[in-house]
Design a protein that fits this description.
The protein has 742 residues and is an alpha+beta fold. The protein contains 22 helices and 28 strands. The strands form 4 sheets. An 8-stranded mixed β-barrel has the order 19-20-22-23-24-25-26-27, surrounded by 5 helices. A hairpin with a 4-residue loop joins strand 1 and strand 2. Helix 14 packs parallel to helix 15. The structure holds ligand C2E and calcium ion (2 copies). The site of one calcium ion (CA) has 4 residues, from loops.
Length: 742
């Protein structure tokens, strides 16, 4: 998920970068397009302005010339040539003309200043002016100084009759400022040409004799040819063209002027445009650069914040704040990769510190925390990078370690526990750190939590050990637990459905060979398993308390049988019922017992209570009290399993029993052991001397029976006489007289 979103983020970033770049390119193209159009309009406007200024100036000069002409006409027939030339001289000074002159129809000349024109010039000006009414010449050379001049002329009339022409010589400088195209930063210039391309006037001295010829090598934009341009100009049209020559790219604007079919041509080199564009581009690129940098900075910031918050999140989600080690979440998360990294040759270990609570209680939480931190440090030192560990809960650590074989692994854990004990024990205290390891060797691909359960199971066993507390999970343990669970799940229904049954095992009187009583033993008729012996379920019921109800049920079954036999007229024998140690702590025990027995109206002396020796020792006073009350109510009490524990004599000393049942283990193997025989013999005679009846349990052979009889045992219970029998068979035995002697 994280990776996907990061990839998405990268894609988004690249996309954004592409969009920004595309934006820059597009913007640049747009800007240069606009710029080019702008420059073109500028060129056009500047050209138009120069052309109209030029037209206006020529017009003004013409008007000035014509107003002078009126005065000149008034002095006709110019008899006083000095007066006329003087007048012309004055007008020259007043009106910026370089020189003024009059040509009479006869070809005579009057000049403001002396200079000698050739006759061709004189006749040409006279003829053209008379023909067209006014005259504007192409470049002429001033004979006085050899400089280029423009000639402008007007007709002189006298009573509608032409009498000559007035002409003026104009210096080109007068027009040059108009050709400078100042509006374009003096980068452009204009020139005046004739329609055929011959230059009339340039801003500077014109170096070519024909513009079109000069342009013959040029390459025009937009596929325009020189010919088309030439034709457009011949037709008197406006034209704006771009072209490329050896000196670079330029724009040319052709504007027709008002006289002589002349054209004003404005030229602007494109580098000016480029320069302008560069400025703008630099500016916009700078702007985009700034935006991009801000964008990148923002991205960087976001990434940084993301990484930071990820770290924070990681720390709070995956790190144990106390020890700085991984926490359980982290372990769960990384477990599959780590396990794969160990090639499946791994073990999951849970370890905990024995009696950690005591450390907290005795030394305070601070010390407890210190111990945990030290444990984490020791683990960190001992765990390879491909392995893992975490603190899962208070003093529980989970480890995933490389596993080769049990022997070396056990050695590794032993070394670890030694180091833990050495490095983690709280100073100034005599309390030694003691740890227990539960190991599950990972042998099958089961879920992590099941592996943990298995390690836990092993840990429980390990904790029971005296030293080197380390246990490996065994599948039999699991099966046992599953079976136990099943038993717990079905016990209630079994009780309800009557799946528990009473078997009765007779007790034989050595003296008579007759049955003198029987012990009620529970059997569980389990689905698909048949009869199940109590050893498989009684310990579980003792753990979960169900035994309290089961014992009462068995008592009731026994009492019911006694009542039934009475009804059937069968002589009964007393029945012994086993009661768990749990009853001793239960105040309801005796009232409940009374209720059950009295419900069937069975005499109390027909019921014998069996209590095991170890239980009695654990609760001596309470046992004393209970036994006393049972006796008072007429029940007899037997001590079960005498000799199986180590407290027998002490118990005997303090409690009043009606009978003692010698445990079958106590009796086992006495046949070839005279020492054992003496002990048994001594015990029997001691018990008998207290006036207590002795019952031998687990008698399987004649030899045993003979020996027990010979040492004075009163009763015997065992397969040699009878196995525990189902009620109907026991009833049949009773009816037949109860003879048991084989
Ligand atoms: P226990 O009270 O010592 O009962 C005697 C056990 O020895 C019975 O086992 C019986 O079948 C067995 N036994 C009898 N004669 C021989 C023999 O010659 N050789 C051998 N090897 N065994 C013999 P069972 O019925 O399996 O009962 C086992 C234990 O379960 C009992 O030991 C008793 O402690 C407990 N138990 C049985 N029924 C009840 C019950 O209703 N309530 C309680 N609380 N415990 C019961
Ligand atoms: Ca018993
Ligand atoms: Ca017993």
């Amino acid at each position: 998920m994280k990776r996907i979103s990061f990839r998405l983020f990268i894609v988004f970033f690249l996309a954004a970068a592409v969009v920004i770049t595309a934006g820059v390119v597009l913007y640049w193209r747009q800007v240069s397009g606009i710029l080019e159009r702008d420059v073109k309009t500028h060129v056009a406007a500047a050209g138009e302005e120069a052309a109209s200024d030029f037209n206006r100036l020529i017009q003004t000069d013409q008007q000035v010339l014509e107003s002078i002409a009126i005065t000149v006409e008034d002095t006709y027939p110019w008899t006083d040539s000095a007066q006329l030339t003087g007048f012309l001289q004055r007008q020259t000074q007043h009106n910026y003309f370089k020189s003024l002159g009059v040509i009479t129809l006869d070809g005579d000349l009057f000049l403001s200043s002396p200079r000698s024109f050739n006759s061709v010039f004189v006749t040409d000006v006279l003829a053209r002016t008379l023909e067209e009414g006014r005259y504007l010449s192409v470049r002429q050379v001033d004979p006085s100084d050899g400089e280029d001049v423009l000639v402008q002329a007007a007709v002189l009339t006298h009573g509608k009759e032409p009498i000559g022409v007035l002409f003026a010589l104009q210096q080109p400088q007068r027009y040059r400022p108009l050709l400078a195209l100042s509006a374009l930063g003096n980068k452009g210039y204009s020139l005046v040409i004739q329609q055929d391309g011959v230059p009339v006037l340039g801003y500077q001295k014109v170096r070519f004799s024909n513009l079109f010829e000069a342009l013959s090598g040029a390459e025009f934009d937009d596929g325009i040819s020189l010919n088309t341009l030439r034709q457009a100009v011949a037709r008197g049209e406006h034209a704006l063209v771009g072209f490329r020559s050896e000196t670079g790219h330029r724009f040319l604007h052709f504007i027709p002027l008002a006289m002589n079919g002349w054209y004003m041509v404005s030229a602007l080199p494109t580098f000016y445009v480029a320069q302008q564009a560069q400025h703008l581009t630099a500016l916009s690129l700078g702007l985009f650069g700034a935006i991009f940098i801000i964008f990148c900075a923002l991205i960087f910031y976001i990434l940084h914040m993301r990484a930071y918050s990820n770290r924070q999140l990681y720390a709070s989600a995956f790190v144990d704040q106390l020890t700085g080690a991984d926490n359980f979440n982290r372990m769960c998360e990384q477990f599959p990769q780590k396990l794969a990294g160990l090639n499946g040759k791994a073990a999951l270990i849970i370890f905990d510190i024995n009696k950690f609570k005591v450390i907290n209680d005795l030394h305070g939480y601070e010390r407890g925390n210190q111990v945990l931190q030290r444990v984490a440090r020791v683990l960190r030192e001992n765990i390879a990078p491909e392995e893992a560990f975490c603190r899962s809960t208070a003093d529980n650590f989970v480890l995933l370690l490389k596993y080769d074989d049990r022997k070396s692994f056990r050695a590794r854990l032993k070394a670890l526990s030694t180091q833990l004990r050495r490095d983690c024990t709280v100073e100034d205290s005599c309390l030694m750190i003691d740890v227990a390891f539960g190991v599950y060797e990972i042998t099958e691909p089961i879920p992590f939590y099941i592996m943990l359960d298995r390690a836990h199971l092993a840990l429980e066993n390990a904790k029971k050990m005296a030293f080197d507390k380390c246990d490996f999970y065994d599948d039999a343990d699991r099966r046992r637990i599953v079976a136990e669970k099943q038993i717990e799940n079905t016990m209630e229904d079994a009780l309800k459905h009557g799946d528990f049954a009473v078997f009765l095992q007779p007790k034989c009187d050595f003296a008579t060979g007759h049955m003198r009583g029987a012990e009620a033993l529970v059997r569980w008729n389990r689905y698909r398993q048949g009869l199940v012996k109590p050893d498989d379920f009684i310990p579980i019921f003792e753990k979960n308390g169900f035994i309290l109800r089961l014992d009462m049920f068995i008592l009731e079954e026994a009492v019911r049988l006694l009542a039934a036999w009475k009804v059937k007229g069968i002589t009964p024998v007393p029945l012994a019922v086993n009661f768990s140690r749990l009853h001793l702590n239960d105040t309801r025990y005796i009232p409940q017992m009374l209720r059950v027995v009295d419900k069937y109206d069975v005499p109390h002396e027909m019921i014998e209570v069996e209590l095991t020796e170890s239980v009695i020792f654990n609760n001596l006073t309470r046992a004393q009290n209970v036994i006393h009350r049972l006796h008072k109510m007429g029940f007899s009490v037997a001590m079960d399993d005498f000799g199986s524990g180590y407290s027998s004599l002490n118990v005997l000393k303090n409690l009043q029993f009606d009978s003692i049942k010698l445990d079958k283990e106590f009796l086992s193997g006495f046949e070839k052991n005279s020492h054992a025989q003496k002990v048994i013999e001594g015990a029997v005679s001691m018990i008998k001397s207290l006036g207590i009846q002795v019952v031998a349990e687990g008698v399987e052979t004649r030899e045993q029976a003979d020996f027990l009889r010979s040492i004075g045992c009163d009763l015997a219970q065992g397969y040699f006489f009878s196995r525990p029998l189902p009620a109907p068979r026991f009833e049949a035995l009773l009816k037949s007289g109860g003879t048991l002697t084989q």
